[in-house]
Amino acid sequence: MLGEKDKLARFEQTILPHMDAAYNIARWLTRNDRDAEDMVQESYLRAFKFFDAFTGVNGRAWLLTIVRNTCYTWLQQNRARELMTEFDEEIHSGEGDAWNPAARLLKETDSRMVRQALEALPAEYREVVVLRDLEDLSYKEIAEIAAVPIGTVMSRLARARGRLKRLLCDRIKGESVR
Amino acid sequence: MNCEAAQTLVDAYIDGELDPTGKLEIERHLQECALCSEGYQEQRTLKRAVGAGELRFKAPAELQQRIRFALRREAKAETAQRTVPLRWFTAAATLAVAALAVLVLLPLSRDRRSDDVVEREVLAGHVRSLMANHLADVPSSDQHTVKPWFDGKLDFSPPVEDLKAEGFPLVGGRLDYIDNRPVAALVYQRRKHFINVFIWPAVSGAATGNKAAERQGYSLFHWTKGGMNYWAVSDVEQSDLKTFVDLLQKAAAPAKS
Fold it and tell me: Among A117, B87, B182, B241, which one is least packed by beta carbons within 10 Å?
């Protein structure tokens, strides 16, 4: 039997270092500091409880899977309507079919605008962008964490960026008119 | 490659996720097609804007400390549960006798544990899953979604059956912790009631028949089949639960461990 001391030491070594990643995804999913902190703490305690089930390959992906599940459970309980209405893979599947040249516009974005636009995306789109562009995870890792096929990660990411682009362009146009 | 394919693949290309052939093909297309090339530049600009936006949140220092502290406390609590009070064994002779006694009695206590303590843990798991409104980690009525979800989370693969046609639709799956190990919990619904089925590998391979129990108004069934322990628990009528258990046993293919 593994001693509790060893278990804690091993956990601190393999799982604890990924707290920033855990907080980042929780913060983007809950869109709130306090809730994100609660999610991360709850996730860590769950992770510790089930640490025996961790196979030791990818601590970050393993932890982020737990964080994501914890966040979605919480979102379903507290913001179910938001989850339901915002995202429907079928409805949105027609989006982003045509190029919408806006490169010049995009160069005018600042980080505040990008932040607001990303925050306005449905959770399922938001998380793939965060996991890919902020956490630098591979499609395969994202597929594992979000429990969807790699092809879905690819199409979600494309649609998420298409939407993000449109939101940004609308914002830039809106601000330049004012 | 045509424009439509290029549009579909351009994100994966920018992310460096295309295989060498796909990469070559899209590069060739981008050289030839001005519109797609512009679109590609645009996606790159977007990705750069997201990456450069300093959008990554960092965990606050006090959260780090709070979690470290909570983990220490958790580890201590787990140790305390397992530690035997040593002050009783003062003399070496007593120790030797006690060791012998433990060797002899351990299998017995182990059996008792699997009946009484586990029964209590199973019930607690069921009640907790309803109280905390945390029925499923993987909410899905599709057994082919629920079963693979357990891959890599458990050291065994639990059999997952859907009994929707029989009036017991699958609601989802969850990890739980019973008898000092992570176990699979499958959730079924019977009208407005929920049934939790806990599954984990049995210590001995022998199959056992149903054992029914009632506890605090809940019905429980326990059986062993195909090398797996099964516990079903719910607040439905015991006869209903019995029907469910019979169906489940009939449906379950031989389990793989």
Answer: B87
Q: Does A50 touch chain B (CB under 8 A)?
A: yes
Interstrand relation of B138-139 and B208-215 (parallel, antiparallel or unpaired): unpaired
Cα dihedral sign for B200, B110, B129, A49? negative
Residue A71 near residue A31, CB atoms below 8 Å: no
Q: What is the pLDDT along chain B (257 residues), one digit of tens a residue?
A: 888 888 888 999 999 999 899 999 999 999 999 999 988 998 898 998 898 878 999 999 999 999 999 999 888 888 776 655 555 445 566 666 666 666 665 555 444 455 777 888 888 888 888 876 678 888 888 888 899 899 888 888 999 998 988 899 999 999 888 887 889 999 999 988 999 999 998 877 677 778 888 888 889 999 988 888 999 999 998 899 999 999 998 887 554 44
Contacts of B200 in chain A (CB under 8 A): none
pTM, whole model, 2 decimals?
A: 0.57
ipTM confidence score = 0.85
Cα–Cα dist B30/A131, whole Å: 27
- Which CA distances in Å does B153 have to A141, B148, B175, B207? 15, 10, 8, 25
Note whether A133 contacts B35, CB cutoff 8 Å: no
d(CA B168, CA B188): 6
| Range list of β-strands (E), chain B | 138-139, 170-178, 181-190, 193-201, 208-215, 218-225, 228-234
| Phi, psi torsion values for A86, nearest 5 degrees | -75, -35
Domains in chain B with CATH codes:
3-53 (no CATH), 135-252 (3.30.200.100)
**B51 neighbourhood in chain A, CB within 8 Å:** 133-134
Q: Min CA distance, B166 vs chain A (Å)? A: 28
> Side chain identity at A72, as an amino acid letter?
Y
